[in-house]
Each structure stands twice: as C-alpha cells, then as structure tokens.
Amino acid sequence: MTRRVPNDFNGDGMSDIIWRNDAGIVQIWDMNGATILHATSLSMVPGNLNIIIETGDYYGDGKADLLLRDNVGDTRIWNMNDGTVVSNDLIAVIPASDYELLGSDDFNNDGKTDLLWRHDSGLTQIWNMNGGTIVSTRSLGPIPANWKVERTGDFNGDGMTDLLWRNDSGDTQIWNMNDGTIVSTRSLGVIPSSWTVEGTGDFNGDGMTDLLWRHDSGGTQIWNMTDGAIASTRSLGVIPATWKVAGTGDYNGDGMTDLLWRHDSGFVQMWEMNDGAITQATSLGVVPTNWQIVAPGSNGAVTGASVYEVLTGTGQADAVSGSVHISDYQFLA
Ligand SMILES: [Ca+2]
Ligand SMILES: [Ca+2]
Ligand SMILES: [Ca+2]
Ligand SMILES: [Ca+2]
Helix, strand, coil proportions of the chain in percent (round to 5)? Predict the structure, then answer.
C-alpha cells in the first residue's frame, strides 16, 4: 500500500498546497519541502457555487482530486491530474441542509478516498467510492447529534480509516474500523473544550495517524498514537494565536508529517518535522489574506465558505524573517 500523503496533486509522494481566493480562483503549488516546484491556477465559479469541501484521491491514481458541492447540493468530484481537470463527475444532489460531510478518507483500503455522511436524522453512512460512483454504502446507524467526528485517520495502522469522535462534554473516542464495521472502540477520556484538534498526520512515521492538539493558551502538542492509545506526547511549545495551523502533510516526502502555518498578516511558514522536532522552518513569504489554504483533512467538518478554515500555524516570530519571492507565483486576485 502506498503511503498516504494528503494533497499530493502531482503524485510525487510529497504533499502540495492548494489555495483559493475570495474571487474563486484556485492555485495549486507543487511542493518539494519548502520549495515551490510549480504553480498552476484554476479558474472556478466564485461565491457559493463550486465550493471545494474536501480533497482526496477518489480515483486512486495517486493524485489528489477535488470534492465540490454547490449551493443547491450538486456534489461532484473533479478528477485532477496536477493542475488539469481530467473529468468532472456528478455523485448526486446532496443538499447541505440535509447531509453533513463528516469525513473523506479511504475506509476500505482500496486506495480510493471514500465519504462519510451524516443525515439530519443522525443516520451516518460511509460511501465507498470509485471516482464519482458510489460502489457500496455502509451504515453506522444513528449517531446522536452531540457526537461529532473530529478527524479521520488510520490510528492502528491496518490500512483502514478509523474515526476520532468527541462529544459536547469532551468525551473522546477512537473507533477502529474495518470497511465500515466497528472493530473496537478506545476512550481517550474527557478532553476539555479548551483543547482543539488542529490536525492529524503520521508525525513519527510509524504508519499510525497521530494528533496535533492546541490549547486556547497557544500550547501545542503532538500525540503519537499506537492502536488508538496515546503512546507519547511531544510539546511544540506555546505558539501565539496570530499563527494558525494551515495544514499538515508530508511536504518533503520523508514519511513524517510536517506543518504549515499562516500568520494573520498573511505570512506562510513551513516546519519540516522529524518526530515532533522542527528540522527546518522556512518562510514561504506573505500571501494576501484574501487567499486561503484549503486545509487537508478538515473532512468537511466545516461547510460552505468557511471550509477554508482559518488555518493556524506558527514559527517563533524571529523565525519568520527572510527573503520572500512570492511574486514569482502570480496571485491573480
Ligand atoms: Ca506533490
Ligand atoms: Ca476506498
Ligand atoms: Ca485502522
Ligand atoms: Ca504515527
């Protein structure tokens, strides 16, 4: 099984960065670590039409695609080959008022990203996908509305996507899943709402998804997970609230997840990481704040325009200095 690298648009095993601006223009940066190899712009319909709600490899060709839903629920996948739209496949009309996307990940380990939906009634279903075609569905039954999927990931390393649930009172659970069947559940206890999951990834490269948590005070921690239990934690220190996590991914292809941070002023900074230690912090310059990074793995937990969730990230302030060549990558706003 190839390693899962989120937002890899050109299929080189390194995560890339996807941007969208207020005018509906999407730009993809193919990355090699903190180096922008290539930038491509896609013109898209602005506003409430054609909102990207997730990214994933829905066709299983190793290159990330886009999942879009418009304001009446038309939900489709754009089959992408790097910056080119190869095809544009309708799944169904799935109104946002009735169906919430809880997650988008590979639940049956066939290399193709699937979808996890919850209907207003609480009924929760996995759709195993082949591109825009629903191959099969799996019901998880009704799930009370006070439980929400925080993230998806493979927390036990068996290749099948699992679920991280949290309820309003902070109770947090991992469900180890096998193609839509709950194999086991693990409680992580009650985690106060002052802590937020800001991202997931395999930070230590052991094949099991780990969690990035941030406290309201800025304290940031990685929890290395083994089979749904917390194996170890790593502190990244206190990161000022002006920096938001803009994304997680393996930008340099070394098998360990890295972090992308965005400052409120527009600065972008990449932290290449080795098991929770920062090996290199590099500024990617200032990108105007009308451009937002589409965060991988937010799993549609936020819908509509706000899906471009305010991405957080850091760097000590003194690490942000450095020359900036962002103008090489024409922002069309
Ligand atoms: Ca790539
Ligand atoms: Ca799949
Ligand atoms: Ca699993
Ligand atoms: Ca791990």
Answer: 5, 55, 45
